[in-house]
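Protein data:
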Amino acid sequence: MTLRSSLPAAKAAIEAVHLVKRFGTTVALDGVSFSIARGSVFGVIGPNGAGKTTIMRALLDLIRLSSGRATLLGTDSRNAGPELRRRIGYLPGELILEGRTTGRRLLGHYANISGPVVQGRVDDLADRFGLDPDRTVRTLSKGNKQKLGIVQAFMHQPDLLVLDEPTSGLDPLMQQEFLSLVSEARDAGQTVFLSSHMISEIQQAADEVAILRDGRIITVAGVEALRGSAIRHLRMSATGVGVAELRSRLAPLTGMAELDCRSRRPAQRPPPCSAVRSRRSSRRSPP
């Protein structure tokens, strides 16, 4: 099912139409449709196994779809040649790097594939992330290998960035640096498609968000709309007040729903009570 109107081809960086992917009897993608405007940041969020990685790999034709079609930057991904590949920066969720060479030599190898890289660009990105590109890759920590992967995706300033769980292994400071890099890419007119299982990260980075579950897109919405529709659950306990009085005080509150007040057992004097409420709030959630 398509959950948002398709953009004109000239305005869409990615157009996915009824993507289906089966692995034997398992349906990994079940009719996924969405489009991403050029120059925007689009996030997909969902639990592990929801299909986030499968979508990205299918879009890039790293795995072949069972049915459906996808276009990237106006080109059918199944017929993409080197010209399109050079316009894309890809960071896989499971990053596998040659360990016997240095990061700089490895990035040079990737540059030969992706196209020219502006002189000094690699060092600028490495400095931002505190990465020493002259160290042998196998001596790098998981976080530093992830930084190396980020550098290779961004270094040739591609028109489209496809980033699968890009902040995995990064400390909070480097996560913020990455989000700044994404913002700069959007300001430069690049399109970013990223996945995460952390809604706070997606909310900080994305213009639009797709929620994925069991291979299906549940909804696509702007970040503000997603925040506004969030259901929050609050559990509290109180002493010195009875169940009936607690309920009468809480029930009139704006947005209150599914209110449940009960006495804690064994009974005490005065009996402590607990309340559970869920409400829809338009306030900004904390990052």
